[in-house]
Specification:
44% of the residues lie in helices and 14% in strands. By secondary structure, it is an alpha/beta fold.
């Protein structure tokens, strides 16, 4: 526009806006820059501002000398208009009386869903649907296994019948596809035409499923599909975008957000590393308002009060509401054999030297953490094999250690001299469970560890699923249906979300854990979820090597889980921060994780 005094559009990234002016208005731009803390004036005629701050402080633009000649990018203008409406809605919701008055009644849900909805709903699902359908955008933080997929589909059905929404784009991990496809068939008399996105978006599809990994390269295609007809954008397992604009997934979700008329997030673990995660999630749902409300609520330090303050902005069904039988979660600390301890401490000294001076290098320290987690299970996992994931060949019974053997050679040949105590524990637990007719789910971060355990547990015909498994459905079917298959080997990154195993398995073992609290909590609920019979005992065992990084991980996970339970006002989550100790019988890294790790180094090298 030739006569525009100020143009407002997107900057270089999805989280930044760029304001441009003609030469006569450069002094006014400098004055405007003072109204925004995030402002960066790169040239006299251009100013970059965080979109969140711009939307939260639109009143600053009222001082512009020629408001009638301000030109907005259409998409950003729509986002600004929505933000102003959402700010009013959020403000009303945070007033308890208004929230209760404006919310739909659970008694109205059946009529709103219509006769085309054929699935039963629990009382807490009805409550969550009523709350979410009362908002333009929403967040469902119900525990894994509470039926968030069904709730999300029901909200879409209501919006489709009452507000003209025609399309649903679901972004989630591949593991969630099965649940969405099953619920689509079970809930709707005439199911949605639901496609899995590959390279093109079918114009005829009512709903698309796409995983987070595919999102970034497909932004233009998916954006056009969302914009072509009124659509709802739903993020399943939304904690995957917890890094916000600084992460690949978060940036892609934020870029798509303005294209959806309605936005919804589903996750049972909304703040795995603290309040910053929650800020980024709310920032996606309510740009310009959500992040600000989290900062205000958490800033006082009273998490119980923060939870009460934010409660009108999200729904949550707790474990207690599911009325599930209790789960017994214990830690078994195993002592390291002498050779294992000697190698671990030698590696610890080496890693400590490498980390010194590089505390700010998260990539380098992340690699060190991975190596140390491997070494806590067995240093042999670090030795180079024929292939990267080659299973360790254990000698049973172990051979005596030859005198004078160099430590590096011992690390490579460790399986010949010592059986890793964690593997010995897993074998004992699986054997004991199998004798009682109970299947066991075994979690390990490392594929090489899974491959090794597959061999050690061969008599129990284990199934195995990791990121490279091509016959995943076949392996899961074998675990569920084959009475000879008494164990399933997997890692939380692959099966930690979206899969239900509670009808087939009631025992889980963690060979190792990393610092990802959300992934730990998500994986716990694969075998403890809605639909579990009341007479079933669920048992989870966490293995930890004494005096190793396992203890640092346990301490940090306890802190993170306790925070999440407090911010969600959920005592059941907080209790998981203090696992019971049990005697032996047989990454998502943040700055505090790094400080704890450095402390572990110093304790052994000082």
């Amino acid at each position: 526009m030739p006569n525009a005094s100020l143009t407002i559009g997107f900057g270089d990234g999805v989280a930044r806006a760029r304001l441009r002016v003609t030469t006569p208005f450069e002094p006014d731009l400098r004055c405007l820059a003072l109204r925004f803390q995030s402002s960066v004036q790169r040239t006299p005629g251009s100013l970059d501002v965080d979109i969140d701050e711009l939307l939260a402080n639109l009143v600053a633009l009222s001082t512009w000398p020629q408001p009638e000649t301000v030109v907005w990018d259409p998409q950003l203008a729509a986002l600004a208009s929505d933000s102003m409406r959402d700010a009013q809605t959020v403000a009303k919701r945070l007033q308890a009386e208004s929230a209760a008055h404006d919310e739909l009644s659970t008694e109205d849900i059946d009529a709103l869903l219509g006769e085309g909805w054929i699935a039963p709903l629990t009382s807490f699902q009805r409550r969550d649907i009523a709350s979410l359908a009362s908002l333009r955008h929403g967040a469902n933080f119900s525990v894994p296994g509470a039926g968030k997929t069904r709730v999300g589909l029901a909200v879409f059905q209501i919006l489709r019948r009452t507000q003209g929404v025609e399309r649903l784009l679901v972004v989630g991990p591949k593991s969630c596809y099965e649940a969405w496809q099953n619920e689509n068939q079970a809930c709707l008399e005439e199911p949605l035409k639901m496609d899995i996105f590959s390279r093109t978006a079918s114009p005829a599809a009512d709903s698309l499923l796409v995983n987070y990994e595919r999102l970034s390269p497909a932004l233009n295609t998916l954006g056009e599909w969302l914009s072509a007809r009124p659509a709802m954008l739903l993020l399943d397992e939304a904690h995957r975008m917890k890094l916000g604009a600084s992460g690949t997934y978060g940036a892609a979700c934020l870029a798509l957000g303005p294209r959806g008329r309605h936005r919804m997030i589903l996750t049972g673990t909304p703040a795995p590393n603290g309040s910053k995660d929650l800020e980024n999630l709310f920032g996606f749902v309510w740009p310009g308002n959500g992040r600000q409300k989290v900062v205000q609520a958490v800033g006082g330090g009273d998490l119980a009060q923060a939870s009460r303050a934010l409660r009108p902005l999200f729904t949550r069904t707790t474990k207690a509401e599911l009325a599930l039988p209790p789960v017994t979660t214990t830690v078994r600390t195993v002592a390291l054999p002498s050779l294992h301890r000697e190698v671990y401490e030698a590696l610890l000294g080496r890693f400590s030297a490498r980390a010194t001076g590089a505390e700010g290098d998260f990539v380098a320290l992340g690699k060190i953490i991975v190596y140390m987690l491997m070494a806590a299970t067995t240093p042999a996992l670090l030795a180079v094999g024929t292939t990267r994931h080659e299973p360790l060949a254990y000698q049973v019974p172990p051979m005596p250690v030859p005198a004078g053997t160099p430590l590096f050679d011992l690390m490579q040949d460790l399986p010949s001299y010592e059986v890793a105590p964690k593997y010995r524990e897993v074998l004992a637990i699986v054997a004991e469970n199998a004798a009682r007719g109970r299947k066991t789910l075994i979690w390990s971060t490392f594929v090489r560890s899974l491959n090794t355990l597959e061999q050690l547990l061969s008599e129990f015909s284990p199934a195995k699923v990791h990121g490279g498994t091509e016959d995943r459905d076949m392996q899961l079917a074998r675990f569920r249906n084959d009475p000879a298959c008494m164990a399933l080997l997997s890692n939380p990154a692959t099966l930690g979300e979206g899969i239900s195993l509670h009808h087939y398995c009631h025992d889980a073992v963690y060979v190792d854990r990393d610092f990802a609290a959300g992934r730990f909590l998500q994986s716990l609920d694969r075998i403890h979820r809605l639909g579990l019979p009341h007479d079933v005992t669920t048992k989870v065992t966490v293995l930890a090597s004494a005096g190793t990084i396992d203890e640092v991980v346990a301490d940090r996970l306890s802190t993170k889980v306790r925070f999440m339970g407090s911010i969600l006002d959920d005592p059941a989550v907080q209790q998981l921060a203090d696992l019971d100790e049990e005697p032996s019988i047989g990454g998502g890294v943040d700055e505090q994780d790094i400080r704890s790790l450095i402390g572990h180094f110093r304790a052994y090298t000082s």
